[in-house]
Structure prediction request, 202 residues.
Amino acid sequence: RSSSVVLRLALYGATIGATNGALTTYVPSYSQETFGFDTTTGGLLFAVCGIVAFVTRLSAGHLSERFFGHHRTLMGMAMLTALAGVLLASAPSGAWLWPAAVCVGLGPMAWNVVGNLAVMELSPKGGAGRGSGVMMAGFLGGTALGAPLLGGSADLLGTYRPGWLGVAALGLIAIWIAKGVVGSSAPGDEGGGPHGQPDHLP
Prediction:
């Protein structure tokens, strides 16, 4: 039962990791090549991602535990990931990249705070360490694949747009994956055995 949750979180991590690798690697270069940002402005764009992620990491865990539940928080982060992909793919001007950067900081750059909480709460006694390792292995594997896949796509097709749409599609898939991470960490979560473990998985 708990191993199924860990595998689901690892799959979520791999999916979001692929988007994270693509976004954090290519958003600055995309801003320069497509919209003519200078190097400093491209760096500031990435700094927005990092600052938003910093604040989100400090607050998301508490909000997830107290109000939303981990599966809803992870679904929201995946939705923001998809939105970032859509904004980047459809941007008519460089101004659209700034809200996309905020979405990147809120979603794929900060999700693992909530993911680690979910592993700790849904793993059996003594299994949280292994579970978090499996989850992070999925994330790092996805991150390693995301950047070369998007870069290869851009080189082959001469545009970043299909790659950004791929990021949006992976965000939508991650929403579906996160629906199965069900615990009792917030009012309204269904089920919930001892220590926040789910009674069942959908």
Observations:
- Helices lie at 2-35, 39-68, 70-90, 97-106, 111-122, 128-157, 161-178.
- The radius of gyration is 17 Å.
